[in-house]
Design a protein that fits this description.
The complex is a heterodimer. By secondary structure, chain A is an alpha/beta fold. Chain A is built from 9 helices and 10 strands. The chains are: A alpha/beta, B mainly alpha.
């Protein structure tokens, strides 16, 4: 299936993931409003946005953990909107969830083994993960609860990789980690990409996302406000999309947009 | 010597209580389901054993080879249909649904079997007998076998949970079922497997109860469920060896209580149960409930 309107990406063939007009509600609250996106093989597609913009909701809906109110999700051209999360995982959409979500009563290696239980065939194995993260081998029998945030994040990535995903969903890798650790983890992405995995990531840390991504989408209060390649946008454009032209200084995401009519330059610090 | 005998007899009875309790503990630890039909299902296991023995004429002691798989299949089925449907609504709904299941089972047994008590004869004089350790201490072979079965079941469960693929998945799902789903694990299926194991132990519990004393349609709620609960709470929720410890504490309390006054027999155990609940609500082994 060829997707129109993506002149620069047409050479990449069929999209791995296509999200069409996705609307998701949390109870009464509309978390996503007609969001669409297309991810092509080999891309690092980054979704940025402020806290509460709907990024995590988008990723969780793609993983199957939320039911959309409207819209559809296509994986390799097949509609998976109603498919259960575990079936999506075994067909190749694997998520590294926000907050790592490791199994605390399991050892490091057991966490990886659970990830590998229903794995697709592919280049990644527990041994390969130990090669990517050499420190893991010596600590494989430790519980992950005693590990540092960066180590836990690496285990979470390893647990996702051993499933041999085609599309890896990374939710807020940088959350709660020191900048140097964040850089080290993002430094692993090229190796993961080289194994044929496509990456869709959500990131609050905009500069990190801009460095890592080949494609960028900004959402604000459930709406897409920017769709571009990092190389072709200016910091001002990203800022405007991220804050919605201008920010309130209160930090009340999700409240009524008070900023209508203000300009970019009036954004507070 | 009376005290020594009480303690030894208590430990023996503790094996039976642990057998009652381990399935309850497993289902709570894995899926947060407090199965109020647990005792009735053990009684169902006892009736299934009676039926199997009557139809196939297998040796009584070998009947578990047929009863346990039947109960395990029933467990998978009940979990995937009734209990999962309740879980999809809320954990509280599972209380109502399993309570309803308990009422239905009891009344169905009264309707289709009868209210009489049944026991499962071991058909073997040696097993029904006992041996003398000293002049004051006699140990019955049957309680000893039941204690042995309980220990083997607990060892088997421990091995299964720690060292097999499904055991690992059960622990993963108990930790975080959403994260397990993201790794391609169908938690519903894993819940079904856990329930199958829990119901399998109920098959053993039913046979043991029938051999040790007797059962009637109401034995499940009046006896088995109560002792199972007490053993689980005393030992610690979600802890396998805690259920054995809880069962043994309960058994010893019963023996000593009846030694003081035969009217105190069941009372003493439940006094201990209350004391543990007040002083050490996480149970003797101290592992709290998983959320």
């Amino acid at each position: 299936m060829n997707s129109p309107g993506n002149g620069d990406r047409a050479g990449n063939g069929t999209s791995v993931l296509e999200v069409r007009d996705l609307t998701v509600h949390h109870g009464q609250l509309r978390a996503l409003n007609h969001v669409s996106l297309q991810v092509y093989p080999g891309e690092v597609y980054a979704i940025i946005g402020a806290n509460g913009a709907g990024k995590t909701t988008l990723l969780r809906t793609i993983a199957g953990l939320h039911r959309p109110t409207a819209g559809s999700i296509l994986f390799d051209g097949a509609d998976i909107t109603r498919v259960r999360p575990e079936r999506r995982a075994t067909s190749g959409i694997v998520m590294v969830p926000e907050g790592r979500r490791l199994f605390p009563s399991l050892t490091l290696e057991e966490n990886l083994k659970v990830g590998a239980t229903y794995a697709r065939t592919g280049p990644w194995s527990i041994g390969q993960v130990y090669e990517l993260f050499p420190w893991m081998k010596d600590r494989r029998d430790q519980r992950t609860a005693q590990m540092s945030g960066g180590e836990q994040q690496s285990v979470a990535i390893g647990r996702a990789l051993v499933a041999n995903p085609r599309l890896l969903l990374l939710d807020e890798l940088s959350l709660g980690l020191a900048p140097v650790i964040v850089q080290r983890i993002y430094g692993m992405l090229p190796q993961i990409l080289a194994s044929g995995v496509t990456i869709l990531l959500v990131e609050q840390d905009v500069s990190q996302a801009l460095r890592a991504a080949s494609h960028l989408q900004c959402i604000l209060e459930g709406n897409t406000t920017l769709l571009a390649m990092p190389s072709e946008v200016t910091a001002e454009q990203v800022e405007a999309a991220y804050f919605g032209l201008a920010a309130t200084t209160t930090g009340n995401e999700g409240s009524h947009p008070l900023w209508t009519g203000l300009t970019t330059s009036s954004r507070g610090s | 010597m009376d005290w020594v005998n009480d303690i030894i007899q208590g430990i023996m009875t503790g094996g039976l209580y642990a057998l009652f309790a381990c399935g309850l503990s497993l289902m709570f630890g894995v899926m947060n389901v407090v199965n109020l039909a647990h005792g009735d299902l053990a009684v169902v296991g006892g009736y299934v054993a009676l039926g199997v023995i009557a139809v196939t004429h297998v040796p009584v002691l070998a009947s578990f080879l047929i009863v346990v798989p039947i109960m395990a299949a029933l467990g998978y089925l009940v979990q995937r249909t009734l209990i999962q449907a309740a879980l999809n609504r809320s954990v509280l709904t599972t209380l109502l649904v399993t309570f309803g299941l308990s009422v239905v089972i009891e009344n169905a047994l009264l309707q289709f079997v009868n209210a009489d008590s049944h026991s499962i004869g071991t058909g073997n004089a040696i097993i029904s007998g006992s041996f003398k350790v000293s002049s004051a201490i006699q140990i019955g072979y049957l309680p000893l076998i039941i204690l042995g079965v309980a220990v083997v079941v607990l060892l088997g469960l421990q091995y299964f949970l720690s060292s097999t693929k499904y055991g690992r998945l059960i622990r993963a799902v108990a930790d975080d079922r959403e994260a397990a789903q993201m790794s391609g694990v169908s938690y519903r299926h894993v819940f079904g497997v856990a329930a199958a194991i829990a119901f399998g132990t109920l098959g053993l519990a039913g046979i043991a109860q029938g051999m040790y004393s007797q059962f009637a349609p109401t034995t499940g709620t009046t006896t088995i469920l109560l002792f199972a609960f007490a053993a689980v709470v005393i030992g610690g929720l979600g802890s396998l060896w805690g259920t054995l410890l809880g069962g043994i504490v309960l058994g010893i309390a019963d023996q000593i209580g009846s030694q003081i006054n035969s009217a105190y027999d069941p009372l003493a155990g439940f006094v201990i149960f209350l004391v543990v609940l007040v002083l050490r609500p996480q149970g003797l082994t101290g592992r709290g409930a998983q959320s």
